[in-house]
Amino acid sequence: MKKTVSLLLALALSIPCMMAGQAEAQTYPDRPVRLIVPFPPGGATDVNARILAAELTALLKQPFVIDNRPGASGTIGIDLVAKAPPDGYTLGVSGVGPTAILPIIDPKLPYNPARDLEIVAGLGRIDFVLVARPGLPVANLPELVAYAKANPGKVTYATAGVAGPQQLQIEHLSLLAGMKLFLVPFPGDSQATAAVVAGDVDIALMGIATGIGLVKAGKVKALAMAGSERSPTLPEVATAAEQTGFTEFTGYTWNLLVAPKGTPAAVIARLNEAIAEAAGKPEVQAKLEALGIRPLGGSAAAVTEFVARETEKNRRVIEVTGIRRE
């Protein structure tokens, strides 16, 4: 009897909370929403966020205002999100580094994604293309592997910073192929790209939108598509897996919408639904496709599972290669 009374009491107490959550979802947002982008303006993450902000502003009838807070490979901005009030009015656009690489290798990171963040929705996945300077005497990935093995430690690769997705994925590829490359880090994507175009560095992983333009202009050579599929704009360039059989290698980066831990589930569901609606619009799909961004949809729970798998994959590569943050 006491157990029954306790259950009825718990149910009675939960009903007001459920009703409050539903009411909150119906009225949210009722004021402007701050959308923190932890990278400088102009990059793929920033442009992705601006497309998202415009669509959410139109759908939810309140301004979603971009706030660029770059620094420390994206962790400064995401830390601001983690420490914000969990009311749905401060959100962040996070990526592979701040979410699924740096938390593994930096014990001093001021936030823990699993403890401090809610994943709201997936925004997009950007496949990389592996490119080489025009003068490098290779035309595809098997030839690069053979050349690198014949010249151990002499083939250089450019990345935007240290311990980011590009370094992690090239080191993973090197591990699978049994080759040793030499890292040349740069402050950002534009400097890393310029170094390969100038012939100062041998190879790099570039976002599809940037890489394909340079390939078609003859400024770099496409050795392989690093994602799981060929690009419709360069269909003759085979994927890395097709050329080598390394099916476990996938070269891409991704973006997510995150919120502070404790943000009401009803608010997260409303945001997730709005993003799904925006991503389904043909004009939005065309904008994202022009940037080489593939949809990364699904419920908040499904995207959380995706991030968990990506984090464990990165952890295995980090353990074997010994990548560390400088």
Can you characterise this structure?
This protein has 326 residues and is an alpha/beta fold. The chain has 2 domains: 163 residues, D-Maltodextrin-Binding Protein, domain 2 (3-Layer(aba) Sandwich), CATH 3.40.190.150; 118 residues, 3-Layer(aba) Sandwich (D-Maltodextrin-Binding Protein, domain 2). Helix content is 48%, strand content 19%. It has 13 helices and 10 strands. Strands 1, 2, 3, 4, 5, 6, 7, 8, 9 and 10 form a 10-stranded mixed sheet that branches. Helix 2 packs across helix 11, helix 4 packs across helix 13 and helix 7 crosses helix 13. The longest helix is centred in the N-terminal third of the chain and has 26 residues. The relative contact order is 0.17. It comes from Reyranella aquatilis. This is Tripartite tricarboxylate transporter substrate binding protein.
Distance between the termini: 62 Å
The portion of residues forming beta strands comes to 15-25%
Provide the CATH superfamily of the largest domain: Bordetella uptake gene, domain 1
- Secondary-structure element string: HEHEHEHHEHEHEHEHEHEHHEH
Q: Could you say which overall geometry the principal axes of the C-alpha atoms support?
A: globular
Oligomer: single chain
The value of Rg in angstroms is: 22 Å
The major pleated sheet works out as: 10 strands, mixed
Mean pLDDT: 91
Q: Report the strand count.
A: 10
Alpha-beta classification? alpha/beta
Poorly predicted ranges (pLDDT <50, ≥5 residues)? 17-21
Which CATH C-level class of the largest domain is it? Answer: Alpha Beta
By CATH, the architecture of the largest domain is named 3-Layer(aba) Sandwich
